[in-house]
Design goal:
Layout (H helix, E strand, L loop, with lengths): L1 H9 L3 H18 L12 H6 L5 H4 L9 H21 L4 H22 L6 H4 L6 H15 L4 E4 L3 E4 L3 H12 L3 H25 L8 H4 L25 E4 L3
Parallel strand pairs: 1-3
Antiparallel strand pairs: 1-2
Helix pairs in contact: 2-5, 5-8, 6-8, 6-10, 8-10, 9-10
Length: about 250
Amino acid sequence: MAEAVEDWYKQMPIITRSYLTAAILTTLGCSLEIVSPHILYLNPNLVVKHYQIWRLITNFLYFRKMDLDFLFHMFFLSRYCKLLEENSFRGRTADFFYMLLFGATVLTTTVLVGGMIPLVSESFAKIFFLSNSLTFMMVYVWCKQNPLIHMSFLGIFTFTAAYLPWVLLGFSVVVGASVWVDLLGMIAGHAYYFLEDVYPRMTGRRPLKTPFFIKALFADEPVIVAHPAEVRFAAPAADEIHEIGRR
């Protein structure tokens, strides 16, 4: 059993493995009271006035209590982050890292701007960690790139992947969770999908081209892969069913 888990972990691509490891260690450290969540959460005043820049990163690593909800989020993180990195971004590790950086930037900016809008400022003021939203963004992007894959929710009903974000959003409403966490992920995911997939097909220009200094950080093996805006994955077989659980 231990060897199987070790093999599964080692077979993960670098970004997925690094993010999953950092998330588990950070959440575990907080649960054991080794680290306090108070030094991790997003606080614009402390970032700007006291130069606590690390908060811009650490707020994406803490997933609160290590309970069943945490396990589901780790499942979604490991599954969809891995699927994106191994398929859509195969041979393009730098581009995948840039996608996460773009998503984190959009999420942080949206929360800061939302905090200044009277109608939603109260809700946004309660958002201290954006880890769940970044995970939701990855789910959204994967669904946009693989809309025809059939899925099953808790074995109750089936649907195509294009509707997965809305199914998860509806589930959040049912269980009484904040929908803003999911909506933020959808906003960031759609912004990336539009600028990386839709806009290039319309204009022939890529506004999200990965900067050279980020590409220099990763030594990707050369792989002949067309840009996702030009080639879509083949539709899966009709009987391909993916079982998902609650987050």
